[in-house]
From TrEMBL:
It comes from the Bacteria. InterPro entries: BBP2 (IPR011486). It holds the Pfam family BBP2. This is Putative OmpL-like beta-barrel porin-2.
């Protein structure tokens, strides 16, 4: 599957003049992205897997492909549509719960505009978070703990209203928490909202929410989740993102007691030149009751993380990246040569190509 995607990517890239086809009704655009990587984890896991809460760049001591994707887009004044197929370790670990026939879909959606309102339906990128599977669009090589443990994609319907250039409002009906196929025995509706505010060209503020149940109705546990972040482009060279996630989930069906988790983060980036940039990340994840990340340790998952990466873009569609990352946990939630430890380190390098 991956070989087929890469072959299609190379063929499309060679035929650059056909990437965008315009006609009187709209335009078709074809694009592609591929990112290969090598990661060395000091825990030296015998199964070659990074800690279980990571779903990107998570294979230890082997050359691998995180994501290879080709996408077709149609855009006109009142209609747009997207279809993307993919392969790689991102696909392997993020789509494991989906039916085999759906695992290689990156997105498949269509939207119709009525005035200032868009109605979209299908498989779409998540409305939660400032990171995505497309590495070149993220400040850091690897994804944050909060990004890895919130949805990258969602299936459902979305209504978006943009009354002006500053405000955007959206409401969503979803199949679940990062699910195409609903959980068996689950008939509970799932909802999401998103509000985006751009006071000027350099600042973006976002508040996204999710309300739903990710269990069979017989053991329903309602989940309420908030995602807040701001993107601040201070100068043409320096920018940073600050955010915090906060979630609640019922401990038992019908209970008024809730487990909570939260995760603050700050990521800063400085572009020394058009070709070279560096970024640093500081993050913390607190999930004492193991709602999202279960550990079976006295204090649950309470982990601080730091990373530093360097990015080199020799030409406009190639990026080379190198990143060092450290995790420091309250309990011994990591393994080093199969022995419990409270810390974990990794060095990762990647090569991304796109058109």
């Amino acid at each position: 599957m991956v070989a087929g995607i890469l072959s299609a990517t190379l063929n499309l890239y060679a035929q650059d003049s056909t990437k965008t086809v315009e006609n009187a009704k709209g335009s078709f655009t074809f694009s592609g992205y591929a990112e290969a990587y090598y990661s060395y984890n000091t825990g030296q896991p015998s199964n070659h897997l990074a800690p279980g809460f990571l779903y990107n760049f998570n294979r230890h001591n082997e050359l691998n492909l995180n994501l290879a994707m080709v996408k077709a887009n149609y855009t006109s004044d009142r209609v747009h549509a997207n279809v993307g197929i993919m392969g790689g370790t991102y696909t392997q670990y993020n789509m494991a719960a989906e039916p085999e026939a759906l695992r290689y879909l990156y997105e498949a959606n269509v939207g119709v505009r009525f005035g200032k309102v868009w109605i979209d339906a299908g498989l779409m990128p998540s409305h939660i978070g400032f990171e995505s599977a497309i590495g070149k669009d993220c400040y850091t090589l690897t994804r944050s703990i909060m990004a890895e443990n919130t949805p990258y994609f969602e299936a459902g319907a979305k209504v978006t209203w943009a009354p002006n250039d500053k405000w955007t409002f959206a409401a969503l009906y979803l199949n679940g928490w990062q699910r195409i196929k609903k959980v068996d025995g689950n008939q509970t509706p799932n909802f999401g909202t998103q509000i985006t505010f751009k006071p000027n060209a350099r600042i973006l503020l976002n508040w996204s929410t999710y309300v739903g149940n990710d269990f069979p109705d017989s053991t329903r546990k309602m989940r309420y989740f908030n995602d807040l972040y701001g993107t601040f482009n201070i100068t043409d060279k320096f920018s940073f993102i600050a955010g915090c996630d906060y979630g609640l989930q019922q401990k038992e069906k019908g209970s008024s007691d809730y487990s909570t988790w939260y995760s603050p983060i700050i990521v800063a980036r400085y572009a020394f030149t058009e070709k070279f940039a560096m970024a640093g990340r500081a993050e913390y994840y607190n999930d004492k009751n193991g709602v999202i990340i279960a550990t079976d340790t006295p204090n649950g998952f309470k982990t601080t993380g730091f990373s530093l990466n360097a990015d080199f873009t020799p030409v406009n569609n190639i990026m080379l990246r190198l990143e060092g990352r450290l995790f420091d946990g309250r309990d011994k939630t990591f393994l080093k040569k199969d022995t419990p430890t409270s810390t974990n380190d990794a060095i990762t390098a990647s090569l991304a190509v796109w058109f």
